[in-house]
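Chain A, query sequence.
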Amino acid sequence: MKRVTCWIGLLALLTALAPVVTGSRAAATELGPGPTYSLSSYLPDDNIPPPPPPPGVRRDSARVSPPLPPPLVSKPQDKQAAPAKAAPAAAAAGCASCQEAGESLQQGCCFCPRWTITAGAIIWTRTAPASSTWLSSAGGTTLFDPQSFNLGWDAGPRIDLVRHFEGWDFEVLYFGIDSWSDSQSFAAAGMHNTLDPGANPLSTANFLYTSKLYNLEANAKLAVTPCIDVLAGFRWIQIDDDVTFQGTSAGGAGSLSQNVFNNLYGFQLGAEGRLFDHGGPFWLDAFVKAGVYDAHVAGNFSESGSFGATATSATLDRTAFVGEVGINAHYQLTRHLAAYAGYDLMWVDGVTLAPDALSTASLSNNSPLYHGAVAGLELHW
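Chain A, predicted structure.
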């Protein structure tokens, strides 16, 4: 009887609490989801002592963590990633776009400097003068021919300054070599020379040849494609040649000399192009230039000692031609610094070389070929 009474009382209690539980659920639905708790909020803090267990319960069974929440599931991502931002091309977007983007060269964006300064050197040689017999033995064997002058390889500075504008550049370029020289000496009895036959026979003969080259040009370059620039500009080239002959005869020591100054002024056209560029730090380019010039040639001849006492000079102007080609390899060291090395050839027609002027006693027309290596550093900013 008592058991039935207990069950009846428990049923009445549950019936009384049902409206309260139902109302709480409805209120929770209207208020929305509750706060989100992290996993740490469910774990006990080791620094806080656990509450005392209820009577009759073992202490080690009282530290039971509440149930863990379900694991968090990250939001699913699209299978296809968003396309990367394309690097603007200099030809399409212009340098302003690259500067606004502010991206570095290593990130794939074009780098658009305002200035480029190239400081380097040329190591060039030059073809020999025309052949002629200047000195022969008593038996008529040729002892010296000016074609045997060997100027060898010599070095000089190369400085290039470029101002970059939107779609075109302005360049000033200088290079030069002023230390080419070679000498030849002979000592034998009864030698004959063709430069001053009245001084024969000679017992000693010494020849000294020096040459200098200077180049200054200003060019405007226009980009016609992303890989090709055309250029037009003004160019000045100076070639100074000097040859001296000293000999000893029965009449004593004597000497004669010939120097020639060639100044070329004119305009040139050309093109520059990228031969290899896959977007990395290495690229390869080439150029070609050609121009027609007014060549002002001035020559001075003098002799002294046992060779006589004569001094003459002459000048003339004629049309000259200069053609130049070159290829260069570049490697980007940093965002602003690159190294380069290459090879150039320059052909000059319409100038006079001193040995040929001495051989012909006139300002003859010569066509020397200059060629050699170039190397240096490029600074971009």
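The chain has one domain: 110-380. The helical segments are 2-31, 90-101, 354-360.
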